[in-house]
Write a structure and sequence with these properties.
globular; Beta-galactosidase, Chain A, domain 5; 15 helices; alpha+beta; 7-stranded antiparallel beta sheet
Length: 638
């Protein structure tokens, strides 16, 4: 068995031991005299989208005119640009060249939200606490042992069931007697609660004070009011904690979730919180609370029948201790099945442990039948998230899925698709309205639920076309690994086809007989009047090429769209030379592998062309490697 063991208090959920079933996840951590389970759920988002404060999204012809005729140029400060050749509409130019739309820059929502917490209150006034915590990865269980100088010990065992979405906790108090009892009526009791959504300025102030990070400062004067506070109420005679959200395009009455505590033979009490905005329940086991079990179930609007029906169904299964035993057996069986597909034994134990920890994290937070989380793990998200916790499609969203199919974990890789359906559907509108093209245009940013219009329709990154091909590569990877023709026909091919059709309409054939891509920037570059920086950019055209190749092959497998495949091939036959492999000194084998390699693994700058036998860039620990100086830990926690 592979384990993670901590013999100390863990004071923040980001460093806590992780449990989950791919939809419902839990981070286990501690505070003074409490063991805490922080809940996360992939579909819990504040979906408010203040698109009404944005200017009309940029049409591709406006960008073309801005570069060619007006000479838009970055003016040295984010969001500032000048028309070096003059402009007939100064205000529209400023609207289009600002650093992203106001709804994205100045609002905190949309963003994922924390769900709530369960606290076990440790025996009061005991002293000299020592604690050991152990996650058994293959079993998906956490065991915690607390001991005090008095000789009192508390043993806790917990897990998340595969189905339904339930956290189960079992505990036992040992060596407690009247002689060493320092508590009042109960040694062990529980609280279930959700705090009120804070004011953005209060969150920003606290974050900057404790981390020195000021990236949230743009939200300090956020005009979004906090969400409505959570509430407690009874559902069929059982207390629940409930959080309601504002109406959105998917849920006309607003998304909702509920937390239901299950305490056999114990009491659940509503706790007065006066005008604090907090919703809190107190769970009191019988007697001193020497031993017992407790569960917390979550239901959301996405469950069949909604959150109330889900919680009622779970409650009706509780007829005794048998259900706890069954959930435990189901959890162990799910772990056995998962790891039977991915067990490894490596000579280098560091990498073996890394393999198990990485897949465990994915197993807790990704599952093929539910939308994947945004940034970051659902059980560790703060009240607000940078970049709205969104689906960023120039590697942030794709990266967690790399390696899933190679690890024989189809469900982990398939978690990419449910949430992305909304971006593909919106992309069809964006392609039509702002490009005059068929197919789908995948924007830099998006969300796993419907929104009304372009979420990033102005600014230097608003009209970059390379993400369209990149975003549909996962569909092609899935077919390559599974050879599942029916899945390709029903699920995979339509997005690939739409992306390739978009590229077909976006490209134009020049007088040189070659198809060119203009205007489209690459990376995340700023405005420049240099047309060459918007024409046939390597990152853009590599993704165009790979997407057209994939579409041709997919159409051939299915025996469909012969006319389209011919048009795609005609483009490839008259494609600009993006990478001169001869000049780069590629061997014959490297040349063979080049068109087969997804562009996200090739690089993006003109001179940044990886070879198949190059060492991973992530292992280059030089100071100027952004993977080390930025992405690998920029927020101090302790």
């Amino acid at each position: 068995m592979h384990t993670i063991e901590i013999n100390d208090l863990v004071l923040v959920p980001e460093e806590g031991l992780l449990l989950g079933n791919g939809d419902f996840s839990v981070s286990v951590y501690q505070a003074a005299e409490r063991i805490i389970w922080r809940f996360g759920k992939t579909d819990v988002w504040d979906r408010r989208h203040a698109i009404d404060i944005d200017p009309k999204p940029m049409h591709i012809e406006e960008l073309a005119r801005g570069i060619r005729d007006e000479g838009w140029e970055f003016a040295g400060e984010l969001g500032a640009a000048v028309a070096t050749k003059g402009t007939p509409d100064e205000q529209r130019m400023k609207d289009l060249t600002q650093y992203g739309p106001p709804s994205y820059r100045t609002r905190t929502s949309p963003c994922p939200k924390p769900v709530g917490e369960l606290s076990l209150h440790l025996p009061a006034d005991q002293h000299g606490l020592t604690i050991s915590q152990r996650l058994i990865i293959e079993q998906g269980t956490v065991d915690i042992e607390c001991a005090w100088v008095s000789g009192v010990t508390l043993k806790i065992h917990c897990f998340v069931a595969p189905r339904p979405n339930v956290l189960a906790v079992r505990w036992k108090l040992e060596n407690a007697s009247a002689a060493n009892a320092t508590w009042g009526e109960r040694a062990v009791w529980f609280s279930l609660y959700r705090w009120p959504d804070p004011e953005a300025k209060d969150f920003v102030t606290g974050l900057c004070a404790t981390t020195t990070n000021d990236m949230f400062d743009k939200y300090a004067r956020n005009d979004n009011p906090p969400m409505d506070p959570p509430t407690t109420r009874q559902l069929d005679g059982r207390w629940i904690v409930e959080q309601a959200f504002a109406p959105d395009l998917q849920f006309a009455e607003g998304f909702r979730y509920g937390l239901l505590p299950i305490v056999p033979d114990g009491e659940v009490l509503d706790v007065p919180t006066f005008d604090s905005g907090e919703a809190r329940l107190r769970m009191l086991p019988p007697g001193w609370g020497e031993s017992g079990w407790l569960a917390v179930a979550i239901g959301t609007s996405n469950d069949p029948g909604g959150h109330e029906a889900e919680l009622t169904a779970v409650a009706e299964t509780i007829t005794g201790n048998d259900i706890l035993e069954q959930w435990g057996l189901d959890n162990l069986a799910a772990g056995t099945e998962f790891w039977s597909r991915s067990a490894v034994s490596l000579g280098e134990k560091f990498f073996e442990q890394l393999w198990y920890e990485n897949l465990h994290t994915r197993r807790c937070t990704f599952r093929g039948d539910v939308a994947a989380p945004g940034l970051f793990l659902p059980s560790t998200v703060n009240d607000f998230s940078l970049w709205h916790g969104d689906y960023h499609t120039n590697y942030n969203y794709q990266q967690p899925f790399w390696g899933a199919y190679e690890a024989n974990q189809l469900s982990l890789g398939d978690s990419y698709f449910p949430g992305f359906e909304h971006m593909i559907e919106l992309g069809r509108k964006l392609a039509k309205d702002y490009y005059g093209c068929r197919g789908t245009f995948i924007q830099l940013t998006g969300y796993p639920f419907p929104i009304a219009d372009d979420p990033y329709g102005v600014g230097p990154f608003a009209r970059m076309t390379y993400m369209t091909g990149w975003a549909v590569n996962q569909y092609w990877f899935r077919y390559l690994y599974t050879q599942d023709v029916e899945w390709l026909r029903e699920v995979g091919y339509p997005p690939i086809r739409d992306a390739a059709v978009f590229y077909l309409d976006f490209l134009t054939k020049g007088e040189d007989g070659v198809y060119h891509g203009f205007p489209s920037d690459q990376g995340e570059n700023q405005f420049t009047p240099d047309e060459s920086k918007y024409t046939d950019r390597p990152q853009v055209m590599r993704h165009v090429r790979y997407c057209l190749q994939s579409a041709i092959q997919a159409a051939g497998v299915l025996g469909v769209d012969a006319d389209l495949a011919g048009q795609w091939q005609e483009v490839l036959d008259h494609f600009p030379v993006i990478d001169d492999l001869e000049a780069a000194g590629f061997s014959d084998e490297q040349k063979r592998q080049y068109p087969l390699t997804p562009p996200e693994f090739l690089g993006w700058e003109d001179t940044d062309l990886a070879r198949s036998d190059d060492p991973p860039f992530a292992l280059a620990r030089e100071k100027d490697n952004a993977l080390w100086s930025w992405y690998f830990g920029h927020f101090p926690i302790r």
